Each structure stands twice: as structure tokens, then as C-alpha cells.
Amino acid sequence: MSIGNPNLPKLVSALRIYTRQAFVHDMLAGITVGLVALPLAMAFGIASGVTPQAGLYTAVVAGFIISALGGSRTQIGGPTGAFVVIVAGIVARFGMSGLAMVTLMAGIILLAMGLTGLGAAVRFIPRMVVIGFTNGIAVLIASTQIKDFFGLRTGPVPSEFLSRIKLLTANSASVNWSALGLGIGTLAILILLPRITRRVPASIVALLACTAISTAFHLSVETIGTKFGGIPRGLPPFAIPDFHAEHILPLIPSAFTVALLAALESMLSAVVADGMTGDRHNSNVELVAQGIANILSPVFGGIPATGAIARTATNIRAGARSPVAGMVAAATLLAILVVAAPLASYIPLATLAAVLFVVAFNMGEWREIGAILQLDLTAISVWLVTFSLTVFADLTVAVGIGLALAALLYIYRVAETTTVSPVTDEYIRDGLPHVLQGRIVPEFVTLLRIHGPFLFGTTEKLVEATINLEAFSPIVILRLRNMTAIDATGSHAIETFAMRLRTSGRTLLLCGAMEQPSKLLLHPRFLDRLGRENILPNIQAALDRARALNASEPKPVAA
Known about the structure:
By secondary structure, the protein is mainly α. 62% of the residues lie in helices and 4% in strands. It has 24 helices and 6 strands. The chain has helices at 10-16, 20-47, 52-69, 84-116, 127-144, 146-150, 161-170, 177-196, 202-216, 224-228, 248-277, 283-296, 309-317, 324-340, 349-363, 367-372, 377-392, 395-417, 425-431, 460-465, 488-503, 515-521, 524-530, 539-552, and strands at 77-78, 306-307, 445-449, 475-479, 507-511, 535-536. α20 links the parallel β3 and β4. α17 packs antiparallel against α18. The chain is globular, with a radius of gyration of 25 Å. The mean pLDDT is 88.
């Protein structure tokens, strides 16, 4: 629970009730996250077309600021896979000065979004577009790591996907078997170790083991030292980047893309954190912190930053209690930079490539594709177009067209479900089982209703209305009689609500869905999550089902 002004950083309210025990938990969690972030930060820097230390500087500076000033108690900030593709493209065309300008402009945009409350606009991006982005970015990240994973001897790798694949295929005979062996070994550790224990970060074990093997056996593989000359020891350097005024206009679309991706990923990460901790983040405060972090990141040689979902989840699982954990994580990386940076020279690039393969797989949301293919052709088309443009065209183009498709889809859904028809005796008769008046609602039932279209941009209202599940009865009936339309984002929101209720020991029943929502709610995936028996035709059937469930519950035995 937050204490005091909700528009202040979460750190302020956390420190008001801070204890020594909380500090111990935060210290252990922060050190754990710092070690997990070490290989990731270097890998994201390399994949983005910059130096590995640029990724580390971002994790230190931006990570500290996002934790200290943000609106989430456990959010971890830093470089992420979402930016890899667009950052690499900017560096290739405009150099480091262009990247610094984009990062700065994106920070200003994020700051404005947070201060004006426009951060809520990210809710108006439908799930199909978000999944299309993440699928496409994951494919691109994986494709950029093929060269290092296999140790291929090629010239400069093109930034375009098809040209890149063509070059890699043409040089597929130049595999470095030592590099491939290290890459496969890294993958084995990353996949198998978490199944044995999660107490030790698998990425650190893989990094240390493969680096030791490469060094001990003098393997002829490319390392951070051979490619980048190592990582300089010391604090992140402070320097005002060289800005070129003529680049401002060409880079504005890229700046908006970076800002949108940062806002989207940070909000998704904060929502994940809320679900794991029971806390509630302040999106506007979080975006202000993200903005400040991205304004300062290029001044210290960094790249764009945002909330990192996997590192945030690791932070929570490691026992974090407050934003202090994220600040400790940044301090841990800083200590490594100051003390042990020269040792990074021996890290094989094949190992970092394998780390990014796992990142790409985890961020891709591949399980969602099966559910998407069960939707109507319109939703599938939006996902496919966004995915294809992300991979084969340009992320900025994909964002623009994805948002345009989202707007058209919203209009289509509303128009599709708007009807004008005469009121007949049959209509009145069919509506009687849905009428609430005169029905007795048992005390073990809580009734909720959705009124109007439940599409992307409106699903947050369900979250806001159900923050305190402790106030709900054991059985919750969600009445859909007046829900005129739903999309994949809406159905996902109901699935998430059902899982929250189940975790709290409660049951969700749905009733009265109209024709268009019924088609989406009767897909096999949705039925598997909620149970066909818990989707009822009307309120009377839902109340009967609730009574049957209540009667089947074991009653406590009197002492």
C-alpha cells in the first residue's frame, strides 16, 4: 500500500516505513539482479551496434534513476531487447551522435507524457499490434546473433533482414566449431540450470564457465577484447554528445518510436510487477522517471532504457521490498565496472549471442500465435501486417501502420456491433432471463457488469474496478449483457481477471454475452482457461451455477 502523495516516487513512501529487514532483502535482491543484468547489458549493447560498455553504462545510470524516481516499487530499468533493432538502424545511418539525439528527444517525449497524463495513451495499442511488434523484434534480435553464435567469417552484416539472411547463408560454410560449441554450451546451461535451481543466475554461471573454458584452452574465438578492445575500468564517462541540428527532423519519427516502445514496455513491466506483489504503480510518475533516465543516459555514454520485464520479475522473486533493490542492482554493476571491467575482455561473443537467443525466445510470446490464429481474419491480419512490417520493413513504419490499423479496427468493431431494429414481442421475451429486477442475489455472489465495447483502451477499467479482490465474494459473476463488442485485448483482460480470482480462491462466471462477444469467448483457449461450464447464457443460469458451486464447497465442521 502506498503512503502519502501518490504522485511522488515510490521510493519516498517506501522509505517512510523502511526497516533493517527490508534493507537486507533489497540488498540480496539487488545484487542478484545486478549479476543477472551484467551479461544482458553487454549483449544488448553489442546487438545494438554500440559497445558493450554502453549497455553497462545504461544499466547503471538509467537503472538507478528509474528505481529512485519511478512509480513502481520493484521496477528494474535498463537496456532491453525492444530497442535493439531501432538503435542499430539509427547508429548505422546517423552514428552515435544521432543515437544520442534520439535518446534525448525520446526522453523529453516520455517526460511530457508523464507530466500531462498522456501516458495512458499506451493502453490504446491493441494486443494484436503489441504481439506483432514483439514477435518481429524477437526474430530480428535472433537473426543478428547468428554470426557470433556460429562464429561465421563474413564482412559487415547488413541491417536489412533479407540481406542479412542472404549473407549469413552464403557464408554458412565458415562455421567456427569452437564458437558453436561455446554457444551450445551456454544454451544448455541457460535452459537446464533453472530447472535444477534458481538460486544462482544461470546467465552468470554460463558466462563464467564458457569464458573459463575459452581462456583455459586458448580457443580461437572472437571475444569482447578482440572485437572491442575490452571494457574500460571506471565510472561512466560524463560528456555532452555532439548534436547535429540537421538530424533533428529526420530523427523525430525514430524518437517517437523509441518513446512509444519505452512507455509500452515499462507499463507492461509495471503491470507484471503489480500482479506479483499486489502493489499498484503510478504510470505517470513512472514515465517521468523513464523520461529523465533517457535524457541523462546519452550524457553518460548510454543508449535508450525502459522497464525490463524479466529483470523486474527476477527482482521480485529474489525478495525485493522497495526501489532500493533496483538502486543496489545499479550499484552492483558500477562496482563491477570499477573493479573487474578488464576481465570482460575474455568473454566469448558466442556466449553473449546465446544469451540473446534465450532473450529473443522469451520475449517473443510465441504461445500467443496459436490463440491469434483462432481469431477472426481481421485480427489475424492486424497481427500479420505488424509482424511482417517489423521484420521486413522498418520498426518506425510498423509502429505507424500498426497504430493506424488499431484505429480502423476499433471503428470496425464498434460499427459491426451497432444495430437498429424494431422492438418485438420476441425481443422482450428473449430478454426476460437477463433481467436482474426481482432476482435474489446470494451473499456469496458479487455481481459486476461491463457496459459498452470492451476493446483495447478500455480494459484498464476492469483492473481499476477490481483492485481490492478481498472485498469480493467467493463467486464473481461478470454480466456481459450490455457489452456490445470485445477484441483479443478484452478477452485477454478477462482471462487475466479470472486467473487473479482463481489465485485468491474465487471463481469467475460469465453470463449474457451477445453474438459478437460470444464468438470470441467460445474459442477453445478461452474455454480452457475459464471452463465451458462457467460461461452461461443469462443471469438466471449464472445464479443457478453459483448456488450449485456453493453447495458443493466443503463446509467447516463445528468445534
